[in-house]
Amino acid sequence: MLPPMGDNVVVSNMELERLLSMKGGKGEGSYVNNSQAQAMHAKSMLHLLKETLDRVELGDSREKPFVVVDLGCSCGSNTINVVDVMIKHMMKRYEGLGLEPPEFSAFFSDLPSNDFNTLFQLLPPMANYGVSMEECLAAKNHRSYFAAGVPGSFYRRLFPARSINVFHSAFSLHWLSQIPEAVTDKRSSAYNKGRVFIHGADETTANAYKKQFQSDLAGFLRSRSVEIKKGGSMFLVCLGRTSLDPTDQGGGGILFGTHFQDAWDDLVRENQFHHCHQLHLKKS
């Protein structure tokens, strides 16, 4: 979930969309070098993904490309590996039915602030279209699909109507599109007292987040329902909790939430220091 801002920091929702992202680049703290846990979980669910792909209707390969999308792709190799699995599985399905495979296209989508440059640098080179499908499948260090990036929030429309065969999204839908206004309003009973996580928060605070999540998920499903082709499928992996209480983010949630809160407080204090220092210089 998107956390509420500190008492002294005001950021609009549109600015959030352009500011929030996993850490880009290829440095020590980058998402590229700190996404092994996501890779492990994604690998453990490949059999479920393939079951979903087996239910996708195969269209006329002579007219349109087969299009897959990863929503919330971030900037590491995890998204590339998943797309590769999807494309190769569908190619084998066409082969198994004795059908000529279509051309394949993959869209990598995330917020505009995502480091698409790093992602594209990780993409393997394009295989030589025109060779046999067997050669494409055997080209382990090449990709057999056209690739493109699509910046934007997946809580809105991103693609033309009836244009996508398969949507994939993992560990992304828990992020809200915006901060519930009530949790940042000191006059509201849902005010979250400047905290950036909701463990142990009041019921009214939890309901504000719940209402925002319901609104976001409805928008997500409405958008995908327009964009997906007839006979297409969607594979979603979402974070969950063992408790029915939405404010109970026990276990790792407490640990990470506390560290997140401490880090956020440090940033707010740092911002206040710089602001005061600038005022002092101007007065001097």
From TrEMBL:
It comes from Stylosanthes scabra. InterPro entries: MeTrfase_7, SAM-dependent_MTases_sf. One of its GO terms (molecular function) is indole-3-acetate carboxyl methyltransferase activity. Its EC number is 2.1.1.278. SUPFAM superfamilies: S-adenosyl-L-methionine-dependent methyltransferases. It is an enzyme of class 2 (transferase). This is Indole-3-acetate O-methyltransferase 1. Keywords: Methyltransferase, Transferase. GO terms for biological process: methylation. Transmembrane segments: none annotated. Pfam families: Methyltransf_7 (PF03492).
